[in-house]
Amino acid sequence: MRPSTEGVNSNFDRPHAGYQMLSAVCEEESSGRRVSEDLCDPSSRPVPAILTCNPHACPTTWQTGEWGTCSVSCGSGGYQLREVFCAEPRNTSVVRVADHNCAPPRPRHRRGCNPHKCPRWYDGIWSECSTTCGDGVQTRVVLCRDAEGRSSQQCEDALRPTNTRPCRIGVACPLPSTLAHPRHQPYTRECRPAPVVVPGALPDGC
């Protein structure tokens, strides 16, 4: 019987290295079959040893996150951001390392978004004045539409044009019909010249 060693591979919790643990077993010399340790000479048992292995660097890769929300809902200058970093596998996970450990090119972390034109207000033609004399009101249609001409709710309320305005025809309105009735007019009496007096007749005049 002779003592032998066997290795167990594992990883250290440090970059680019694993380890092998060498432990002694008792084997039959003729067949190499493992047998009970009681059959081997304890004084010749090898001392357990730990050796490092696979010291080369693990392959690194670029990792990217999800794109964030666009900075604008429409128009020019909008952008999105995402996280980009270099990662190295460690056991069952990945660990972030310095970017110079990954091969170029580095994935972009920023991109443009929502380049379409913003909805805007459209105003119609003013209507005729609401009255034919004196003061009145004019109206017009004001709509919010997108770049495709479809109705939209995304226009800024602060920029909405007014849809009413005062107007004046320049013609004075007539008096109400109640004031035009004779009973409301100033009292006047026509004065006629005195007639020629005829003997025997009563005089008439003002």
How would you describe this structure to a colleague?
By secondary structure, the chain is mainly β. The chain has 3 domains: 2-53, no CATH class; 61-112, no CATH class; 120-168, no CATH class. 2% of the residues lie in helices and 32% in strands. The protein contains 1 helix and 12 strands, in the order ββββββββββββα. The protein has one helix at 177-180, and strands at 2-11, 18-27, 49-53, 61-64, 79-81, 84-90, 93-97, 110-112, 120-123, 135-139, 142-145, 164-168. Strands 1-2-3 form a 3-stranded antiparallel β-sheet, with no helix packed on it. A hairpin with a 6-residue loop joins strand 1 and strand 2. It is rod-shaped, with a radius of gyration of 53 Å.
Number of strands: 12
What structural class do the secondary elements suggest? mainly beta
Mean pLDDT: 82
Give the CA-based shape: rod-shaped
Assembly level: single chain
